[in-house]
Amino acid sequence: MLVPLESIAQEAVDEAAPEIAEARVMALDDFVHEAEEHYPGLEAADARIRAARAQLDEAWVTPFFQSYLTAGFTLAPEVRGSPILSPDSQLPLDNAWQPVFQLSLEGVIPLWTFGKLGAARDAARAGIRAAEGDRARVRAQLLYDVRRAYFAHQLSLDLQQMLSEGLPRLREALADVQARLDRGDPEVDQFDRYRLAAALAEIEGREAQARHLERSSRAALRVLTGVSDFRVPDCPIEPVQLELEELDYYLAHAMEDRPEVRMLEAAIRAREASVDVTRAGFFPDIGLVYRFGTSYAPGITDQTNPFVVDPANYTSVGAGLVLRWSLDLWGNAYRVDRESALLDDVRERTEEARAGMELEISEAYESVVDARSRVEAYDRGRRETRAWFIAAGQAVDIGTAELSDLTDAVSAYFLARFAHLQAIHDLDVAIANLERVSAVSVTERWEPECE
Description:
- The protein is α+β, with helices and mostly antiparallel strands.
- The protein has a single domain (18-81, 95-438), classed as Outer membrane efflux proteins (OEP).
- The protein contains 9 helices and 6 strands.
- It has helices at residues 5-22, 28-38, 40-61, 116-183, 190-225, 247-257, 259-280, 329-398, 403-438, and strands spanning 24-25, 66-77, 97-112, 230-231, 285-296, 314-324.
- The strands form 2 sheets. It has a 4-stranded antiparallel β-sheet with strand order 2-3-5-6, with no helix packed on it. The chain has a two-stranded parallel sheet with strand order 1-4.
- α3 packs antiparallel against α4 (116-183) and α5 (190-225) runs parallel beside α9.
- The two termini are 45 Å apart.
């Protein structure tokens, strides 16, 4: 015997009921907090900031520690005597071979580089500002994604709640019409059944969309926050309260505070530093050079005469000023032209990006205005069609209206209510997007209080 699908679904719900009851109730602020604590993208941005800071530390330290320690070991034939008298031949390969140890330490400390080191540090500082701006960008995108997923989840639950109110009645009405047709009731005809079947199919299709939206939004929240077992408060989706400013207000703030703007400014400063380094290539580097070296060969007689060069046994210490100057001045002129052109490229791209951000902010602003207008319009339509739906139902019950009137009222009401809920969702997402693109905290509360 086949088990009805409804029985199977109910058993699954009953089995899952204890788990659902134990699931953590999370509001929007809770999801945002968990996302900021556990999202890998933010941790990766923090790692990039640490790397940029380490690069600045390297720019401060590394130029003053350009020292090299060299140690060596080899074998050489034994050699005895002095430059005047020796019992060995000129090539004493037949003598016993003895070890030779050598050690040297040498390096240079820059004293004056005509701005090369300062420009390198400026570029490293620009890298830190760019990394910090990138983290702010990642965080703003994360907040937007979490809010968008949360509002989508609210919408899906409200849609399913709404549809659960109308589907049973429509199914009963369709079954009743079919039964009356089978009995040959003259007050109903096949067109009434067609209307009900079409309305039922439309609403069942919306229900499938709502279930898909619920699954996808839960998956998004799970990925963004790392929380797998949760449920949202039993609160209907509501429009986010927003005192909308003029468009110029958001444009001005975005051009000052948006993370992408700071990243572009950092890119310009890094290119300027690169130009400074290249221009400094026309000038020499002045530094303090130092060297210590020693060699010890026990099998070779140490020559104590200072006027005799003894490469096998010696100790030397020296320091002095050194000037190193690359005379590739002609080639460096072309390198300056190249770096200047790249700087101009970044500046023009920055202006292009600013223009694109202005368009993006304007679009986000107009989306808020449009969604707010649709919320108001669809709310009026929802109230009107609900009154129509109730009146038609009562009229059909007392026999003063045709069944087709009820069918039309049901379809109009649920479509209007669906459009109203969708408009609220669109408005909330549009407000979240406006905050993302303008870098302005647009509202103090993202979720109304409810019990």
